[in-house]
Amino acid sequence: MENWGSIISALAAILILIILPLIARRRKKEGATNKTEELYRHLRALGVGASPVEKGDEKEKIWLARASGQKSEGLIELEGRNIDSINVLSISTQYETRYSIEYLVQASNIMIERALKRTRLTRKKSPPLWGKVVAIDWKGDASLAQGLKLDYSLEDKLLRADVNAFKGTIQIFPEPKHGYARIRTDYFLPSAEMFEAISSIARHIKSW
Q1: Per-residue burial over 169-202, b = 16 or more CB atoms within 10 Å of its CB, e = otherwise
Q2: Which of 23, 48, 95, 127 shows the greatest Cβ crowding within 10 Å of its Cβ?
Q3: Along the 208 residues of the chain, how does pLDDT read in single tens digits?
Q4: Beta partners for 154?
Q5: pTM, whole model, 2 decimals?
Q6: What is the rounded distance in angstroms from the CA atom of residue 203 to the CA atom of residue 208?
Q7: Number of other CB atoms surrounding residue 157 within 10 Å
């Protein structure tokens, strides 16, 4: 009987080792699907014309760092906006899965032959480190950064939207090969104010 007990315990341990990773993988997949669906429903609630795109669309592949485990979890197409579509991305480690959003902006002027640089938003806090954001600045491509700095309406939108609401920053990546630029943020559901701010950034990119 003792032998049977040992065998049953060993089998139970093996089953646990097989089943637990499968459950974890399924939960990750469901979480990713929920992120895309969550964002889509949120945009519709804001009055943004949006529709989900079937998996496999070419726009999902605009700069994916596959070596780092990054992948597209779903694409949302927008109607009548400076933003062409939105890509929900994930990057997985053995400990967690983190999500980000890339707002894709189609701009033929990005394909011209000139050196384009990544541009990002920086914030000034008072007091430093833990205080409230009191001013913003843009670093990177001189031409684009200058245009964004001089857009005081954009600065006002970002400050009123409270850029403390998300942990990261806003980064703009030119993709001349594809004729697009990517506006990347951490994953969060943008307020109407923040979405309009991102739309303003997309407008600047189109006239870059």
Answers
A1: ebbbbbbbebebbbbbbebbbbeeebbbbbbbbb
A2: 48
A3: 556 666 666 666 665 666 555 544 554 444 445 899 999 999 999 999 999 988 777 777 776 655 567 888 999 999 999 999 999 999 887 788 889 999 999 987 776 666 778 999 998 888 877 777 788 899 999 999 999 999 999 999 888 876 556 567 899 999 888 889 999 999 999 999 999 999 999 999 998 7
A4: none
A5: 0.79
A6: 9
A7: 19
